[in-house]
Amino acid sequence: MIDERSRKKLMVEHSRLLNAADVDGLLGLYADEVTFEDPVGADQRSGRDALRAHFEEFVRAGVRETLGDPVAGQDGKHVLAPASAVMDYLPKGPGFAERGWITAPDDPTGKRITWNYVLMLRTGKGGAITELKALWGRSDLAVTD
Amino acid sequence: MADEATLKHLALEYARRMNDGDVEAVLELFSDDIVFEDPVGAPPLIGKEALRGHIAWSIECQVHEEPGRPVVSMDGRSVAVPTTVTVYAPTKLTFQIVGIIELGDDDLVRHARAYWGITDTKVGDGPELSGVAHFMAVTQNLAKMVQAKGSPSPT
């Protein structure tokens, strides 16, 4: 019970820190050994340095995440939540377009990317996050004004 | 590999067939070697026969599923959908879950996971209990569901 609630609080705190552009704070929630997949099925990476670079890109894009209600796994490890986010087209947009995930706009000025996903965090010893997974596909992404 | 629209349709179709109460129509979506975890954290059900019992039991409990917006994985293998699941018998219980289903090469579901915790479960329509009282009420009512089935269950 307490464990489920603490994992849900962790998820909410993770979102708060991302929106506050606090990358050091975010990294503080993670274990020494981390893996992450964002999106699942395309980009599996590991290590805190890679994770820091990943969050810094989102922060540079002015990301705003809106989190739905988190649910807790009865495995004592996982917490998941539906989420949506919006960020500036730059810097990540051209990379998305190159991979065929979105159609590049003629003029990226003022464009934004919005997407829907399910965020999944796995925790380990002491409640630190050991894995982040975000499920989203091409049809969950849109380029907007 | 299924396209994204097919994956999303499948997640909604599962809910529709459950709500129709048609056990065989639900089972058609799954492969023979299905691994079904409901909830994740309990021993998984393995194989279609084990799943048939679970689905039939859920339907006996008058299950109703209200799926939210599905999202897919970039490799076209998985679809995740937040869902409100209500059972009306023997007691009304409401579960907030995130379901993740993974397809095999035959486009049938080969792995299904339902994530929900005791804190994602509500008993009846009354005011929300908290702490230990909530935990006791949920676990007692889950046990009642299992007794109603008359045989051991994963929930």
From TrEMBL, chain A:
<dbReference type="InterPro" id="IPR032710">
    <property type="entry name" value="NTF2-like_dom_sf"/>
</dbReference>
<dbReference type="Pfam" id="PF12680">
    <property type="entry name" value="SnoaL_2"/>
</dbReference>
<feature type="domain" description="SnoaL-like">
    <location>
        <begin position="15"/>
        <end position="131"/>
    </location>
</feature>
<protein>
    <submittedName>
        <fullName>Nuclear transport factor 2 family protein</fullName>
    </submittedName>
</protein>
<dbReference type="InterPro" id="IPR037401">
    <property type="entry name" value="SnoaL-like"/>
</dbReference>
From TrEMBL, chain B:
<dbReference type="Pfam" id="PF12680">
    <property type="entry name" value="SnoaL_2"/>
</dbReference>
<dbReference type="InterPro" id="IPR032710">
    <property type="entry name" value="NTF2-like_dom_sf"/>
</dbReference>
<protein>
    <submittedName>
        <fullName>Nuclear transport factor 2 family protein</fullName>
    </submittedName>
</protein>
<dbReference type="InterPro" id="IPR037401">
    <property type="entry name" value="SnoaL-like"/>
</dbReference>
